[in-house]
Structure formats: C-alpha cells, structure tokens
Amino acid sequence: GNITNNGTFNNEPGTGTSTYTLTSTSGTLGGSNELVIKDVEISSSGSYTNVNLFTVERALTGSGTFINGAAGTFTYTGDNSSGTNFTITNFDPTTTGNTVVFAGTTNQQWRGTTGTNNDYYNVIVDMASGGSTRLNLSSDVRVNGTLTITEGDPVLGTYDLELGASSTITGGDANDWLRITSTGVVRQYYDAVGDDKVFPIGDTDDYSPITSMVITSATLGSNAYLEFTVTDAAHPNRSTGNEELGGDDEGVEATAYITRYWTVTANDISLPFYTVSYQYIDDDVVGTESDMIGTLYAQPPGESFYDWSDIGTVNATNNTATISDSEYWGVLYAQDDKMDRLPVQLISFNAEATVNSVMLKWKTATEENNSFFSIERSVDGLNFKEIGQKQGFGNSSAIQLYSFVDSYPLNGRTFYRLKQVDFNGQYEYSEVITVVWNGTGIQGRLNVYPNPVQVGQNLSVSIEGNDPATISWLLLDMNGRVVYEGNFTNSGLLQINTSEMKDGVYLLRIYGPEKAAETRKVIIR
C-alpha cells in the first residue's frame, strides 16, 4: 500500500540494520513531510512512486521498481562507492520535473536508469564540501533538465555525461567540477541555437571550464550534439609547421602558450557560427601571457590536413581565451601571435553585396613569396570552387589593397575564402566570410521542364515575355560545384543534355542582362 508521512517517521536504527521491505504492486511514498528510511528493499512484485520528499540513508535494493514522480525529490545519502548499496533493479527518475539528489559525505556511483539513455531529469550533486567526494559515473547517463553542482565532483571516467537539448548546468567552481579523467566526454544535444551554454569541466586536478558557448546560427540535424574534452598538456602541434601542401609557416616555434587544450567535436551540425570562451589556470602559462591570442586548430573545409586559425583573444587578467565567429569545430587553444609564421599577414577580408554583384576586398600588411590569391566560393561553407585569381605582390612590407568582383553571385547566403599560394606551391586559407545577396529576378516568365527529368532526357529552359537578350546560366550540384554553364538567347529554347549526369538535386541559376538572377531546383532521376 501507500506510505504517507504527515508527522515524524523514524526508521534509523542506532546500530545494526533494519530493512524496510515494500511489496505492494502499486504504492506511493508521500505525505506533507519528508520520509527518511535507512534501508529500503522493494520486492520483485513491488512498484513504488515517490510523490514528495523521500530520503534513503544507506541502501535501496531489491528487484522491484522505484519511480521518482514529477513532484518527487529523492535524496540518496549512503555510501555507494562500491556500487552495492544502490542496486534497485528498476530505477525510474525520467519523469519531467522530478529531482534526484546525491548527498552524503562518502563517494557514490552515478548509476544507470530504466530510461532509454539512462535518463534523469533534474540532478543535484550536494555532497561533502572541499572537493573531496566523488560521484563516479558507472554508466553513460543523460540529464534532460538541470544539473546542479553544489558540492562534490561528478567524475566521468570511461563513461559519457549527456545533456539533453533543453538541459542546463548551474554551479561548479574551482573546488567542485565535472572531472574528465579518461575517455568519457560531456555531450550536449541541440535542437535550437542561440542559448549561452556553460560547461564547468576540468581534468583530474584542475578546473578549466568553458565559460560560454553560443552557437548563433547553424543547420541542425536530427541528432545534433557537441562533445567536449579537456587535455592537461601543451598542444602537440603548437610548434610544428605544416610541411604538406597547406603549410602555413616555416616551423616557427610558439614561445608563449598554455599547457591545456579543449577539443570540441560536432555531430549533425553544419554551417555553424559560434563564439566560445574557455578558462585556464596560472600554472598553464608558458612564456609571456600578454603575447597570446585565442587560436583554433581545425580541418579546413574540404581538406585532409589541419591548420591553425588566429581568430581569438586572451584576457590575461582572468585567464580567459575567446574565439569569436568561428565557422568550424576543432581544438581550442591559446598561444603567441607570431605573424612571421604566415607568409602573408592578412589585415582584413570583407564582402559587400551590391545590386548586381558581390564586391570582395582584402588588405595585407606584409607578404613573403606570395604568388597569387585564389578566390573561392561555396554554397554550404564546406565545398569550395575557385571563381577567380588575383596576382600577389611577391615580397612586400607595405600595406597592399586587393579587390575582386563576383559578377555572377549566388542567391542567398554565400561563403567566400581566399587561398594564398606561395611561389613554391604551398598555400594557406583565410578565414571564411559570408554575404547574403538577393537577386532582383529576371524579366519574363521562366519555364523549366520536365521537372523532375529522367536521366538521358533533355531539360528544357525558356523565358516568355521578355525583350531578346543574351542569358547566362549555371547548373550546380548541391555542393556548389558547376556541372554545366553557358549562354543562350532568351527568345530561343535552351536544351540541357542530362545523359552524363547522376541522379540527384541540382540548382539551375539564370542570369539576366543586368545580372538579375533566378534559381530553380531541378530533380534528375
């Protein structure tokens, strides 16, 4: 039956044990006052739901079912360091609104649940003070509500701590934090962007949190998440120039850096723009801290190698590095700003949409062995195609100005980058910038048929109700690569042969005489 405590209930023997055995197939634990029991066993046929305040001081065992209801707060204060005192077979703290509190003065294990992902809703870690008690994960677990770290340290070990898309973390400090000690990761799920997330993480010995992570925009898939780890060591590539194509330096060593780095890995998140801040400790600093900037070690889109980007700042007062408006994921770090690592020191790179084109402008402070710039464009920020080149100044210590006009811009958001190529063939990419260009549309009615079109059929294009003019056209795949291109007179009929094309979705872009543009999606089967 039900156990209701509206007064004082004492099941705390001074010595020995006194197990309270529950056998009802459908009972509740409730009342207006807290129910405190030292040892509880729920038999195989038993199923009890906590609807208010319930505390177990030593052991919760049995092969039955314990459910923490939506209004329930279940507190466990026992010694479960070996995992033998909290062994109830079916533990269900998944209901929205419920709270599980890990308290007490000894180490405990953070066990799994009956949830699909070992789900919890709200979890409070409030153990002994001083950072001496551990809540060791004994399985992967997921928190879908709020994780509050008051006192005590959740330790991941080889297990992952997952945070649902609506979850938040509060608390955590230099005494108590999420300790990443082995292969386990902190995994944050996303179903929307814009929230400022905080991750009070650190390694075995040091608190080194991500104090802010804001994804301002991104394309999120159905299983979108970020994974975070922290490593207590100097980055192994901090002093090494990339010797393969794409190398950006001559092996100039970093003389100021930190002995800690954070790895951010994304799944099902594309086209991101994000800003992140992360904090190191005084003992991490090697060299002159004021010489350091925030840096990102990542794989340029479409490339096989990894490279450094100097896109951040360091606040030496509070030991915080910040990377702003990054467009790809990688390793967060801080090191000195040795510009002689780069053969070209790029001051700025900007894009501006005009009525009929996109104007690209960039400025260099110094150049060393700079042969030329390749201007590259992409529709997705991952797959780039060259659209032009500008000759470099070779060797220069003066400021040089460059510009390039994209006369046939793409509708909507477009990504641009510069590929700076040395005389010896090595090259380096700039940051990726974006611009939104909205074509004014061509005059007349655009007809594209049949659509969908079978492989081998001709795709027909015509424009009705317009004065005769020469029309330019591009057929692009969904990676932004030009498959076919050409010109035709809008008084005539364009026939595109699809016999050499693969099944898929393509974009047909038509440009009028004033660079006005229209786009149609074409399906080839």
Number of helices: 0
Tell me the radius of gyration: 30 Å
Give a count of the beta strands, DSSP E runs of length 2 or more.
Answer: 46
For the termini, the CA-CA separation is: 65 Å
Mean pLDDT: 87
Number of domains: 4
* Broad structural category: mainly beta
DSSP strand content: over 45%
- Low-confidence segments, ≥5 residues, pLDDT <50? 242-250
Helix content: under 10%
Shape: flat
Major pleated sheet? 12 strands, mixed
List keywords for this structure.
525 residues, mainly beta, Chondroitinase Ac, Chain A, domain 3, Immunoglobulin-like, 4 domains, twelve-stranded mixed beta sheet, eight-stranded parallel beta sheet, 46 strands
Model description:
With 525 residues, the chain is mostly beta strands. The chain folds into four domains: 21-184, no CATH class; 210-339, Chondroitinase Ac, Chain A, domain 3; 342-437, Immunoglobulin-like (Sandwich), CATH 2.60.40.10; 445-524, Macroglobulin (MG2) domain (Immunoglobulin-like), CATH 2.60.40. It is built from no helices and 46 strands. A hairpin with a 5-residue loop joins strand 45 and strand 46 (517-524). The radius of gyration is 30 Å and the shape is flat. Mean pLDDT is 87; it is low at 242-250.
